[in-house]
Fold this sequence. Notes:
Layout: H1 4-11, H2 15-28, H3 32-43, H4 51-84, H5 88-121, H6 127-146, H7 149-173, H8 179-194, H9 199-217, H10 222-243
Amino acid sequence: MLTAMESGVIEHLEIWDKAIVLAHISEHAGRYDDMRQYMKERCEMGPALGTEERDLLSVAYKGSLDLRREAYRTSQLIEQERRQEKDIKEADLALNFIQRVSAEMQEICNECLDVVGKCLAKADAGEPRTFYLKLQADYNRYIAEFAEGSAKDVAIKKAKLYYAEAMKEADFHLLPTHPVKIGLCLNVAIFQHEVLEDIQLAIQTASEAHNAAMQSLEGMPEEAFRDAMPNVSLLADNLAMWRGE
């Protein structure tokens, strides 16, 4: 039971602050579908999102989508195995399941693009604008992973445009060591490798970002080094994999 004082504190929280508290609770509980709804509410009211709130927005939609992406990949493998075994009935059931998961992923991506588009319209230049442009590109990339035909082509085209715009914004405003810029470069390289299937371009993008970050980190404060290294390490890991090292 809440005490009178605790109840009073909750009542005096702004609506958007309540949404953030509930988003944190949802994250800890692993309920990303709930978390994304709370973050959607937060984006639709109150002032522009701060850095921590932007990170919560990203975690909410990524967590919600990743559950389906894993289900999508697993069910695709099952369908392929059943067709190889000539078990057409089970293969068709798996295909129906894949289509249902695909529809859920499309809904999540569309919702995220809509929410982020509204945030982007009022975002300041620099980190906020780069962050939202990156998310626009990322979720078009995710659509391209499961879409087919013209829908896939449109998603690829939009992802290219948003990644290019995000890179332009980041190059103008952010240091090579900025976590958002490094994360953007990483995702651009992944897009080039996995969607465009241009391995050499992906290696070039990741290598340039990795080298620029490492050179710029020399003499930087320990905090900057600590913030940059997780994504720098991911760049290095992907480079090693793509080069076959």
